[in-house]
Amino acid sequence: AADGPRAAGMLERFSPQDLSQLTWAYATLRRGDDALFARVAAVAPAKLAGDGASTQALANIAWAYARSGAAGVAGAAELLDEVSAHALRRVDEFKPFELAMILWALAKAQRPNVLLFQAAAHCLARDVARLPAQSLSNAAWAFAKVDVRAEPLFRAIAASAPARLDTFSAQALVNLAWAFCVASLLPAQLLRQLVSRIELVPVGPETPVAYWQQIQQLDNALRLDAPSLGIRLSPALVGACRVEICKQHGARKPSNLHRAVSDALRHLRVEHVDEFCVPELCYHVDIALPQHRLVIEVNGTM
User: How far is CA 212 from CA 132, 147, 169, in A?
Assistant: First the structure.
């Protein structure tokens, strides 16, 4: 990962498979190296020309940029769009888990290709029985995240998942339940099964913040997107989630831009609250004007 012409020259000699393995390794180890990912993004498109890359290499590259948080580096957006274009032309060549991986990555990186998602939905619905539990959850999450309708796929997942719930991780259970709610496809029996299993997952001081965030999002989705079902997470789990989320945000420092906006409001004598928690949603916004029932999100993706 050394900087300079020598490193760039080495990457020029890498095959698409080499580049996919390199980025996959860094992402798996959670080794952030924006300079490396930017250099790969510069050389990879030419390597992918002519469909010379394997479907595994395409999926691994997309996954690595999404997993590592490198989707915002120079050239990454163009590379992901190139990967999407190749995947669309060769969608029938992908193994089901590879297709689920690439869809998850594009949704995570906020670079969805709608045509690819639509084509992939047909392939995955046909092969849903061959999808591992994590891939099943990832695929549903991806479609819900980018708001691409895929009712046949979700029906196939709803039919396949109940017999395999013992193989789902806690994260996969939460994400699958969230996806069905947000997609407004509400198989009541499956959602009750998912929520029952989620309630049994041990939580405590060692529970990752990311899992609490997922629980928060699921609680919001059950109440806002699926109120007619009357399915809720237990007050104890929701209460613990709110405590942990508040701890997380209480330790967060406003960005410079956030502080500048807050200072401008103060100069204008506009009463406001920074890092405001909406209690009913356990969701924090950057700035709230409670008396006007307005919120301001500063440079935020949500």
Answer: 24, 23, 15
Grouping H, G, I as helix, E, B as strand and the rest as coil, residue 10 is: helix
Partners of 288 in the beta sheet?
273, 295
Q: What distance, in Å, lies between the first and last C-alpha atoms of the chain?
A: 33
| Pure H helices in 147-208 | 151-160, 170-182, 188-199
Q: Which two tokens stand for residue 81?
A: 């769009």
- What type of residue is 40? V
DSSP state of 214: H
The token pair that represents 153 in the structure block: 């796929």
User: Over the stretch 114-138, which tens digit does the pLDDT of each residue have?
Assistant: 999 999 999 999 999 999 999 999 9
pLDDT number for residue 2: 46
pLDDT digits (tens, 9 = 90+) for 133-174: 999 999 999 999 999 999 999 999 999 999 999 999 999 999
Q: Which residues pair with 53 in a beta bridge?
A: none
Burial class for 208, CB neighbours closer than 10 Å (0-12, 13-18, 19+): exposed
For 61, the enclosing helix (H) or strand (E) is helix 55-68
Q: Are 201 and 237 in contact (CB under 8 A)?
A: no
Q: What is the pLDDT of residues 200-238, one digit of tens each?
A: 999 988 898 889 989 999 999 999 999 999 999 999 999
Taking residue 175's Cβ as centre, other Cβ atoms within 10 Å add up to 26
Q: Mean pLDDT check: name the lowest of 62-71, 112-121, 175-184, 277-286.
A: 277-286
Q: Closest Cα partner for 156 from 169, 143, 146? A: 143
The Cα–Cα gap between 192 and 211 comes to 19
